[in-house]
Automatic annotation (TrEMBL):
InterPro entries registered for this protein in UniProt: HAD-like_sf
Entry keyword set: Hydrolase
Superkingdom as given in the UniProt entry: Bacteria
Protein name: HAD family hydrolase
Listed GO MF terms: hydrolase activity
C-alpha cells in the first residue's frame, strides 16, 4: 500500500550550511562571506583587499567544504523533531543538489543528527529528479520542501500535483531569497519548522 511522500532538500532546510561555511572561510581562508543580495557568487571577498572571489574558486571551496566540513553542519531548529513527526505519517526522502559521490556522506551526516532517510542526489533543476522519485514511490499525496525558488519553479512545471513548501531556515539567507510563493511556484513560504510542521501535516491529512 502506498503512503504519502515528503521530499525534502537538506542544506538550509534540515541542516545549516552557509553559517558553518562562513565561519570556515573566515578562519581558514581569510575570506568574508556576506549576503547582501540573492547572488551567492557575489557574497565572498578576500579580507586583505576586498577582491571578489572568482567563480571557479567558489566552486573549489564549496567542494572542499563538503569534502572536509560536513560534520560541522548543525540541524536547523525543530527540523529533527519535525522529520520524525512527518515520517510517522509518510515516507520521507531527501533530494539534495550534491554529486553522487556525496550520497553516503550526506546519509551518514543526517543520521548523525538524528535523521534517517533515503538520500537522492541531483545536479541542476530538481523537477526531473522529483518526477523520477514520484514515479518510483507512486504516493497518495506528495509534498516537496526546498529553500531555493528555482527548484519550486522546476517542480511546478513538471509535477504540478505536488504540494510545494518554500522553507529557508537560515537567517543569513532567508531575507535575500526570492519568494517562490509570491512568484506562484510554491503553495506557501514558511521559514521556521514550528510553523511549517502544522502546514505540512495538514497537507498529508488531505491524502487520507
Amino acid at each position: 500500500m502506498t503512503r504519502p511522500l515528503v521530499i525534502s532538500d537538506c542544506d538550509e532546510v534540515l541542516l545549516h550550511m552557509v553559517a558553518p561555511f562562513q565561519a570556515w572561510l573566515k578562519a581558514h581562508h581569510d575570506i568574508d562571506f556576506v549576503m547582501e543580495s540573492n547572488d551567492f557568487g557575489k557574497a565572498m571577498r578576500y579580507v586583505h583587499d576586498g577582491r571578489a572571489v572568482e567563480s571557479r574558486e567558489i566552486w573549489r571551496l564549496l567542494d572542499l567544504f563538503f569534502d572536509t566540513q560536513m560534520h560541522t553542519q548543525p540541524a536547523i531548529a525543530g527540523a529533527v523533531d519535525a522529520v520524525g513527526a512527518l515520517a510517522d505519517r509518510a515516507d520521507f526522502v531527501i533530494l539534495t543538489n550534491l554529486g553522487d559521490s556525496y550520497r553516503a556522506a550526506r546519509t551518514a551526516q543526517l543520521e548523525g543528527v538524528g535523521i534517517k532517510a533515503r538520500v537522492f542526489t541531483n545536479q541542476g533543476p530538481k523537477g526531473p529528479a522529483l518526477k523520477a522519485i514520484l514515479d518510483e514511490y507512486r504516493p497518495t499525496r506528495a509534498v516537496f520542501i526546498d529553500d531555493l525558488p528555482q527548484h519550486h519553479h522546476s517542480a511546478a512545471q513538471l509535477t504540478p500535483e505536488v504540494f510545494r513548501l518554500h522553507l529557508c531556515g537560515e537567517p543569513l539567507l532567508a531575507p535575500h531569497i526570492d519568494c517562490a510563493h509570491k512568484a506562484g511556484h510554491a503553495h506557501a513560504r514558511i521559514d521556521t519548522w514550528d510553523h511549517a510542521l502544522p502546514w505540512l501535516l495538514a497537507r498529508l491529512d488531505e491524502a487520507a
